[in-house]
């Protein structure tokens, strides 16, 4: 059974995955409105609404019906500047976005987490991602889809050295640790959005690659 999404809320549209997903959404005939708040203006499109500014300010002001919400928010400790700043984005902002999406009527949330996410992990990054998943599950979504991609492969405006070095190697690793092309991830997220399945679904990277082919 499939949903026919009409009104989409998207966070992180200016990021690597978000921009690919936004392009796909705007070219889908069933999508009549994409509400994509961002810090910087996005390219104009007849079906795009793009509030620009500080998310902490405009998030409570978002309005209109929402059917499905996508969350592609994420940063690195280096970009954020500290572990505290990283948590503010990858945990606090994600949870706040999801809460607002639910208030706006969204019944399905598709969120990007990470391979190895675990609230009890000794690795800070994995622990925060696990805490984020835990917090979203506590929101009691009718349908929550958590995607856990491995290393994302794609051209960033601001290249990350670690990803540039690890990228070629990740293509050789089998299973869920094999790197995933960002275009495949975006396609997989859209396909998952069309599936109607109550409760929580966690999709690991190997399944994402199959869905995104």
Characterize the structure shown.
The chain is built from eight helices and nine strands. The protein has one domain: NAD(P)-binding Rossmann-like Domain (Rossmann fold). It has helices spanning 16-26, 55-58, 77-80, 83-103, 124-138, 161-170, 182-193, 205-211; strands spanning 7-11, 33-35, 48-49, 68-71, 108-112, 143-148, 152-153, 180-181, 199-204. The protein starts with 6 loop residues before the first strand and ends with a helix. α5 (124-138) links the parallel β5 (108-112) and β6. With 213 residues, the chain is α/β, with parallel strands linked by helices. α1 packs across α7 (182-193) and α7 packs across α8.
Work out the radius of gyration: 16 Å
CATH superfamily: NAD(P)-binding Rossmann-like Domain
Helix content: 25-40%
Number of helices: 8
Beta strands, count: 9
Spatial order of the strands forming the largest sheet: 3-2-1-4-5-6-9
How are helices and strands ordered from N to C? EHEEHEHHEHEEHEHEH
Note the main attributes of this structure:
213 residues, alpha/beta, Rossmann fold, 7-stranded parallel beta sheet, two-stranded parallel sheet, 8 helices, 9 strands, globular, NAD(P)-bd_dom_sf, Semialdehyde_DH_NAD-bd, NAD(P)-bd_dom
